[in-house]
Design brief:
The chain has 465 residues and is an alpha/beta fold. Helices cover 45% and strands 13% of the residues. It has 18 helices and 14 strands. It has helices spanning 15-25, 38-44, 59-66, 77-83, 109-121, 138-149, 169-174, 187-201, 214-245, 249-257, 278-291, 295-322, 350-360, 374-384, 389-395, 402-406, 426-431, 448-454, and strands at 5-9, 30-34, 71-74, 86-89, 126-130, 155-159, 179-182, 209-212, 331-335, 364-368, 396-398, 411-414, 438-441, 457-460. Strand 1, helix 1 and strand 2 (30-34) form a beta-alpha-beta unit. The longest helix has 32 residues, at 214-245. The radius of gyration is 23 Å and the shape is globular. It starts with a strand and ends in a 5-residue tail after the last strand. The structure holds uridine-5'-diphosphate-xylopyranose and adenosine-5'-diphosphate (ADP). Uridine-5'-diphosphate-xylopyranose binds next to helix 9.
Length: 465
């Protein structure tokens, strides 16, 4: 079966970049990305490619090449579903904040709504592809909804998890290590798998396109993220040991990473991992294991999250204890709010939790981030519900200039590894700060020796202070 029309429901960090690359590489396929959020769609259609709602290096060029030709962004969800042969579900699946599985299970209400909408609109056979990160066996739930509420239409459900990392989404898509496609082992299932394989084969070598059954595909996504997050928590655990003993975590990471069985990637100690995937996927894994009565499995993976929470709080507490056990009324500058560099995404960013802890101690936080809006930062803090909106606003000030952020500050905390931070005039920053001038480098990006030469009291994750 040759697919000529694709619809993607959800124009977010996953749906937008993924569909842009699929359209760019398959000029004979019409790709329509739909979303209920009108502002988001308007931003995707903005003539000025600098205003796209998702910031990703290279995304503007890809969208610029395909948009209006075979790539479209629209709010007409029903029309796009009706016309498409293949429908990707790329809506958000946040962790549940209520009811059974609160703070642990994925909230599938958006996915379920999509399935119901597809069922009610579809008049011809469709291949439905789950792209959002979902707990194992979600495809089964989607299938049940489609088969029991549809109008006799045939559906094939595929799982095609996304492995792109934010900030490098376009390269990750264009040069994917592997693409995973799970489908039914029936002849119709295999035909649907082949249709999706053909789309990716337009630019990826066939041997990188793996096909499995649906459940293996779903579980592989959770497992991949759990393993990556586990590496970060493992090195972060060692970072605390290094700080207490005088070892240097970078040196340890380098030494162990040269063992080809361990490998060098994802061994960078930091103030803690963030992002929309790691925590959510591990919590999902934990929830599934618990539901199946596998307590030891659940406890094992939960420890990765516990270590990560500890790392964020430990960083905040280091700031308080170093600043003579009080930050009340003191200005603390934050450089960076995004969960990593080269993205405007802040979901689960360590900065939010560090700020929250410092505001508990009545600090005055002043933030500069090259890509994150002040509204987003306040929303992030409010989402934690630690205090009322007004108090958050009174304690969090956002500025558009890094030098202003650091002026008169007692300490600077580096929360995101934006490259530009390394290029700042640190001498000038030092001169305009309160003394002693502290820098807490949660991302190990600055040259410690140089910082000390200038006069800073420099603290970095993972080595003796
Ligand atoms: C992750 C997976 O990498 C990707 O395959 C999946 O599709 C989605 O989840 P993402 O969350 O976008 O991608 O970013 P990633 O680069 O994995 O970083 C996650 C967090 O871990 C960031 O906060 C990052 O700063 C942190 N991290 C990563 C470290 O602290 N140290 C490291 O060595 C690597
Ligand atoms: P992700 O990182 O998984 O891409 P985002 O939150 O960035 O998550 O994007 C998900 C998008 O899905 C949002 O823009 C949201 O408006 C959209 N969405 C959620 N439910 C629906 C729905 N039923 N129909 C269309 N779009 C939806």
């Amino acid at each position: 079966m040759k697919v000529s029309k694709i619809c993607c429901i959800g124009a977010g960090y996953v749906g937008g970049p993924t569909m842009a690359v699929i359209a760019d590489k398959n000029r004979d396929i019409q790709v329509t990305v739909v979303d209920i959020n009108k502002d988001r769609i308007a931003a995707w259609n903005d003539e000025d490619l600098n205003n796209l709602p998702v910031f990703e290096p290279g995304l503007d060029e890809v969208v610029g090449r395909a948009r209006g030709k075979n790539l479209f962004f629209s709010t007409e969800v029903d029309k796009a579903i009706d016309e498409a042969h293949m429908i990707f579900i790329s809506v958000n699946t946040p962790t549940k904040t209520y009811g059974k599985g609160k703070n642990m299970a994925a909230d599938l209400k958006y996915v379920e709504l999509c399935a119901r909408q597809i069922a009610s609109v579809a008049k011809t056979d469709k291949i439905v592809v789950e792209k959002s990160t979902l707990p194992v066996r979600t495809a089964e739930a989607i299938k049940t909804i489609l088969y029991n509420t549809g109008n006799g239409v045939n559906f094939q459900i595929l799982s095609n998890p996304e492995f792109l990392a934010e900030g490098t989404a376009i390269t990750d898509l264009e040069h994917a290590d592997r693409v995973l496609i799970g489908g039914d082992e029936t002849p119709e299932g295999q035909e649907a798998i082949q249709a999706l394989v053909d789309i990716y084969a337009a630019w990826l070598p066939k041997e990188r396109i793996l096909t499995t059954n649906v459940w293996s595909s779903e579980l592989s996504k959770l497992t991949a993220n759990a393993f990556l997050a586990q590496r970060v928590s493992s090195i972060n655990a060692i970072s605390e040991l290094c700080e207490a003993t005088g070892a240097n975590v970078n040196e340890v990471a380098r030494a162990i990473g040269m063992d080809s069985r361990i490998g060098p990637k994802f061994l960078k100690a930091s103030v803690g991992f963030g992002g929309s995937c790691f925590q959510k996927d591990i919590l999902n894994l934990v929830y599934i294991a618990k539901s199946l009565g596998l307590e030891a499995v659940a406890d094992y993976w939960e420890q990765v999250i516990i270590m990560n929470d500890h790392q964020k709080i430990r960083f905040a507490e280091k700031i308080v204890s170093t600043l003579f056990n009080t930050v009340s009324g003191k200005k603390i500058a934050f450089l960076g709010w995004a969960f990593k560099k080269d993205t405007n995404d802040t979901r689960e960013s360590a900065a939010i939790y560090v700020a929250d802890r410092l505001i508990d101690e009545q600090a005055q936080i002043c933030v500069f981030d090259p890509k994150v809006s002040s509204k987003q930062m306040i929303d992030d803090l409010n989402y934690l519900q630690s205090r009322d909106r007004k108090s958050n606003q009174n304690h969090l000030n956002v500025v558009g200039d890094p030098y202003e952020a650091c002026k008169d500050a007692h300490a600077i905390a580096i929360l995101t590894e934006w490259d530009e931070f390394k290029e700042y005039d640190w001498q000038r920053i030092y001169e305009n700060m309160n003394k002693p001038a502290f820098v807490f480098d949660g991302r190990m990006i600055l040259d410690g020796e140089k910082m000390k030469e200038i006069g800073f009291k420099y603290y970095v994750i993972g080595s003796e202070y």
